[in-house]
Design a protein that fits this description.
By secondary structure, the chain is of the alpha+beta class. The protein contains three helices and eleven strands; from the N terminus they run E-E-E-E-E-E-E-H-E-E-E-H-H-E. The chain starts with 11 loop residues before the first strand and ends in a 12-residue tail after the last strand. Keywords: Hydrolase.
C-alpha cells in the first residue's frame, strides 16, 4: 500500500472570520462530521511560506538567530518568509528571502520537502528548498527592521545541527524538518534526485 496524503473536504454548513490581522486571520467553520453532527473548528488562515536550507561547500548550513515573541525564545532558523502575493512563485520568494536575510544567492535549487506546519489549528503550508553553490549577492544589503534588526547570522555544520535537533536544543520547525530531510535524502537516492525547484505544489498553486 502506498502511504500518501490525499485531498478531502468535509461539508461546511457555516463559516465566520472573527479576526483579520495584517498577514493572517482566524476562521470558524461549522463542519459536518461522519456521524452527521456539526462541530465548530477554529483555525488560523495563512498565506503560506517558503524556507531555504542553504548548504555551502564545507557542508555547513546558513542559519539565523531571531527573537520569536509568541514562544519567548531566540531561535536558530533557516531563512524563511511569507508568500505575500497570492499565486506567487515559491522559488522566486525563496530566492528573495535568501537575499534579504543573508545577502546570499545560490545557483542550484531543489525542493527538499513540503509540510503543513500545524494542520490541527492552521492551514499554513511551507515549501522548504535546498540551495547549493552559494555566493555573496551583488548590490547593497537589504535594510532590516523590527525583530530582524537584532538577527545574527552563522554557518553551522550539518552534523552539529542534527545533534542539536535530537538533543531538543533546536526547535524551529523549518530548521528541524529541513536538516532531517537533508540527511534522509543523502541516505536515500541522493540530493540530485530531489524534485526540481519548480515542482508542482498543490497546497499553494503557482505559475512557473
Amino acid at each position: 500500500m502506498t502511504i500518501k496524503d490525499t485531498p478531502e473536504e468535509w461539508e461546511i454548513r457555516a463559516t465566520d472570520t472573527p479576526f483579520v490581522g495584517n498577514k493572517t486571520s482566524v476562521r470558524t467553520d461549522d463542519v459536518v462530521m461522519p456521524d452527521g453532527t456539526v462541530v465548530g473548528r477554529d483555525y488560523q488562515v495563512h498565506p503560506g511560506s517558503v524556507a531555504v536550507l542553504a548548504l555551502d561547500e564545507a557542508d555547513r548550513v546558513l542559519v539565523l538567530r531571531q527573537y520569536r515573541h509568541p514562544v519567548r525564545h531566540k531561535l536558530w532558523e533557516i531563512p524563511a518568509g511569507l508568500l505575500d502575493v497570492p499565486g506567487e512563485n515559491p522559488l522566486h520568494a525563496a530566492q528573495r528571502e535568501l537575499y534579504e536575510e543573508a545577502h546570499v544567492k545560490a545557483e542550484d535549487w531543489r525542493v527538499l520537502t513540503d509540510v503543513y506546519t500545524t494542520p490541527g489549528g492552521c492551514d499554513e503550508a511551507v515549501r522548504i528548498f535546498l540551495a547549493r553553490d552559494l555566493s555573496e549577492a551583488e548590490g547593497e544589503r537589504f535594510a532590516v527592521e523590527e525583530e530582524e534588526a537584532d538577527m545574527e547570522l552563522d554557518r553551522v555544520p550539518v552534523e552539529d545541527l542534527a545533534r542539536g535537533v535530537l538533543a531538543g536544543e533546536l526547535h524551529n520547525n523549518c530548521l528541524v524538518v529541513g536538516v532531517l530531510s537533508l540527511l534522509a535524502a543523502r541516505s536515500g537516492d541522493g540530493l540530485d534526485a530531489l524534485r526540481p525547484a519548480q515542482a508542482p505544489w498543490p497546497a499553494r498553486p503557482f505559475e512557473a
